[in-house]
């Protein structure tokens, strides 16, 4: 059974394993530095569907289907599915995944969803509640832009702090067996430092990232040096700089072992993504694609994966409210 | 540790208890048959706030605050918070509950959220992951109507199958101790029978309710006669009739011990709510208000509480897609 360290950090003593994972991406993601790690890249942004929303559902469907194939399990052998996405009412998940008929726990954690879902899947396996559980999430540039900012046809100009919502999905199957193990998790707390700019998600998420990371270090009595990679979800350039600044105040330095999925997914010199990538699918596809594969190959042994979410609502932003953020953390061990 | 019965039903052997609960309602809910059971009724539909969305956040805040007071615990003594609501990006929860600074797992289950959050809170306490966990949800007529259907100012006509979104919230604190216990839970599966009418949520949810209920009876090897109350979330008149019809085909009869929160919350003879109440706050406030109190008073001993959610997205409905439903179940014992 999981051992509680502090209020919200859990040491998973059975070390549930990520039995298999899959990453699906769009054309632009395939052309970026992560291109080689996607299981499937579609040059058709609609993924054969007739709407952006259904395309996003298809992304999740492909991700889960591929991860189950790689794990050698059928949908009937997965006991519980944790999923969510950025779309209103999380329709990427509900429409994309309903065909599998797996008992479903819908989550909303914005871009933190890969960490939130993987954390819940690991806790369910650890607690004997599921023999196998799946974690799935996605994002799609076109469905996200029209919902959160402006429809693409409007041609709105993007400021330098803006991030590019990845058209991508990731899925992981957790169970007992061979694979990268989930050693510990920390449930995040909502943080809000007053950012009101819907084009500056990185800054809205950095305080939550700093809070969850210091909570984990305190609870587990460990230090950055105990890990060979500390990976955030999608803080991008602006959020990364702010995270370093916030951690510096606490005397925590992570820059020599730090990466951000939002900065890994695109080549910012060649791809016009401004401050980096974002969206649930960004950290999901980078984790489920390259990172887990590199861990299996021995490149990384101890990884802290912390996906961050800006709980951003266009309605609240229009009302002048600040954007709260959240970050959940997993300690993964090869 | 929870004992697994079948794929998605869990017998909670430590019997986590609902230590306290609270229900908050608006003026119309206060005038209905549940009026006496609300902890607070506000005649101001904006709850002192300057937007409907913030009013809904305030509803959740009041519900959690009151439940914690009744349980005699502070926010720092609650280890984990499970919450969500109907608003895009679940802003009722994120804006309403962030001040408590409790580790937060955001959920999206539409009107099934009271059951989803309570189920997760109970599983966390059962598994030793939380000493105390809270489950919170809400809905607000005005924020829901303008988001899902038409802004109130439009004056759109409501068909007879339409339900009235309750302005209400419920919160429960789960832990080890005295109180109604959570004896078993069943995680629901998404079901979709092809309902495309956004004004007929009851019909969209009934298939999921039938599926979860029969799954629970099969997994637990029990029958309707083993329970003195089977309570659905907010099927309303149309959904209730359809549920009976679907269960009849499986040879299951529940009508002699059945209630629906959507039919309990308003007096349909005097209050113009058409097919009944709905919204996350409907089943949340009926459960956290009258039902749990009546269980403590000995009126009901064995209750099946099954909140149902229509995972309805205006975007998908406009695209002609059907509305999927989900239902999660808890067996509560006095």
Q: What would you say about this model in short?
A:
The structure is a homodimer of 334-residue chains. Chain A is globular.
Could you give the topology of this structure?
The structure is a homodimer of 334-residue chains.
Chain A: E1 3-5, E2 9-11, E3 17-26, H1 27-31, E4 40-42, H2 52-71, E5 80-85, H3 91-97, E6 104-106, H4 113-126, E7 132-139, H5 141-148, E8 164-165, E9 168-175, E10 180-186, H6 201-220, E11 229-232, H7 236-249, E12 258-260, H8 261-264, E13 277-278, H9 280-296, E14 302-310, H10 314-318, E15 325-333
Helix pairs in contact in A: 2-3, 6-7
Could you explain how this protein is built, in words?
2 copies of one chain form a homodimer. Chain A contains 10 helices and 15 strands. Chain A has 334 residues and is of the alpha/beta class. In chain A, the strands form 2 sheets. In chain A, strands 1, 2, 3, 4, 5, 6, 7, 9, 10, 11, 12, 14 and 15 form a 13-stranded mixed sheet that branches. A two-stranded parallel ribbon of chain A has the order 8-13. The interface between A and B is large, with 54 and 54 residues.
